[in-house]
Design goal:
mainly alpha; 70% helix; 294 residues; 9 helices
C-alpha cells in the first residue's frame, strides 16, 4: 500500500504543480477568462487517464492466462522505462518548468480557446497516462486480492491535490528539489520490483526461459501471507522464491539507476555544488512559483 501511495503522491504532485503554475499565471496576468478552457483541458486529461486505466484493467480480463501474463509483463517493463525517464526528467527540468509552461501558455492565449484546452490537456495528460500505466503495473504486481493498493493510490492523489492547493495559497513551504530527489529515489526502488515482477510474468507466459531456475527459496522463513511478508510485497514487490533472471535484472537496474539518480548531476558546477533554495507557493511572500526549485 505504501508503494502505491508514493506513486499517487509523486505523480499527483507533479500534475498539481503544473495546474498551479497555469492557474496562477492566468490570475496574475488578469486573464481569468482563460480559466474555463484550462479547466476543460484538465478535465479531459483526467478522463482520458481514467479511461486508459480502465481499458488496461478490464481489457486484460478477457485474455487467456498466457496472454495476460505476456501483457502484464510487457506493460510492467514499459511502465518502468517511463517512470525512470520521468524521475530523471523532473530532476533536471523542475527549475525551468515554470518558464516553459508560461511560454506555452502565452502562445496558446494568442491562438485562442482550442489552443488553451490543448495546452492544459497535454501538460496534465502526460502525467495522467504515465500514472495510470505505472499504477496498473504496480497494482498488478502487488495484487493480493484486496483493494489496499488502489486505496493507497487514492490517498496519495488526495494528498497531492491538498499539497498543490496549499502551494497555490502560499500556505506551504518545502524544498521541492529535495522532495523530488528522495521520492524519485524511492520510486526507483519500487520500479525495480515492478521490473522483476514483469520479467516473472514473461517467464510464466513462456516468452523468457528460466522459470524453474530459482535464485533462492525462503518461503519457509518469510511467509508471503504474514504481515511482514505482505509489507515487503507491498513496498518492494518482494518474492520469497524469485528466479535467477529476476534477481539479476533487479540488481542490474536498481544499483546503477539509483547511483546515477542520487549523484549531484545538475546541482554542481565543476566540483562546487549549488545549494537548492526552498520553494514557495505562487502567492508566497516573494512571489515565487512552486516549481522554482533547483
Amino acid at each position: 500500500m505504501f508503494s502505491n501511495y508514493l506513486i499517487g503522491l509523486r505523480e499527483g504532485l507533479e500534475a498539481s504543480l503544473v495546474v498551479c503554475i497555469l492557474i496562477a499565471y492566468l490570475v496574475k496576468t488578469e486573464r481569468r477568462d482563460a480559466l474555463k478552457p484550462i479547466w476543460a483541458g484538465i478535465a479531459v486529461a483526467i478522463t482520458v487517464a481514467l479511461g486508459f486505466g480502465c481499458a488496461l484493467e478490464f481489457g486484460s480480463q478477457e485474455m487467456t492466462f498466457q496472454a495476460q501474463e505476456a501483457l502484464g509483463g510487457s506493460l510492467s517493463i514499459l511502465a518502468v522505462g517511463l517512470v525512470t525517464w520521468m524521475v530523471f526528467w523532473m530532476r533536471r527540468t523542475a527549475r525551468h518548468l515554470k518558464s516553459e509552461l508560461h511560454g506555452k501558455l502565452d502562445a496558446a492565449l494568442a491562438m485562442g480557446t482550442g489552443a488553451l484546452v490543448a495546452t492544459a490537456f497535454l501538460a496534465v495528460g502526460r502525467e495522467g497516462l504515465e500514472t495510470a500505466l505505472f499504477v496498473w503495473a504496480s497494482v498488478h504486481a502487488a495484487s493480493d486480492g484486496t483493494p489496499r493498493p488502489l486505496i493507497g493510490v487514492a490517498l496519495g492523489l488526495a494528498t497531492a491535490v491538498l499539497l498543490g492547493w496549499l502551494f497555490y495559497r502560499g500556505a506551504l513551504r518545502i524544498n521541492l528539489a529535495k522532495f523530488f530527489t528522495w521520492t524519485g529515489g524511492m520510486l526507483v526502488v519500487v520500479a525495480a520490483g515492478v521490473l522483476a515482477y514483469g520479467v516473472h510474468d514473461l517467464q510464466e507466459a513462456d516468452f523468457i526461459p528460466g522459470l524453474t531456475h530459482l535464485a533462492f527459496d525462503i518461503s519457509s522463513t518469510i511467509d508471503p501471507t504474514s504481515w511482514y511478508g505482505t509489507l515487503l510485497k507491498g513496498v518492494f514487490n518482494f518474492q520469497p522464491d524469485p528466479t535467477v533472471l529476476q534477481v539479476t535484472v533487479w540488481a542490474l537496474y536498481l544499483v546503477p539507476t539509483l547511483t546515477i539518480f542520487l549523484a549531484p548531476v545538475g546541482f554542481a558546477s565543476g566540483k562546487k555544488k549549488v545549494k537548492a533554495p526552498d520553494a514557495q507557493g505562487p502567492q508566497g511572500s516573494h512571489g515565487s512559483q512552486p516549481s522554482k526549485a533547483s
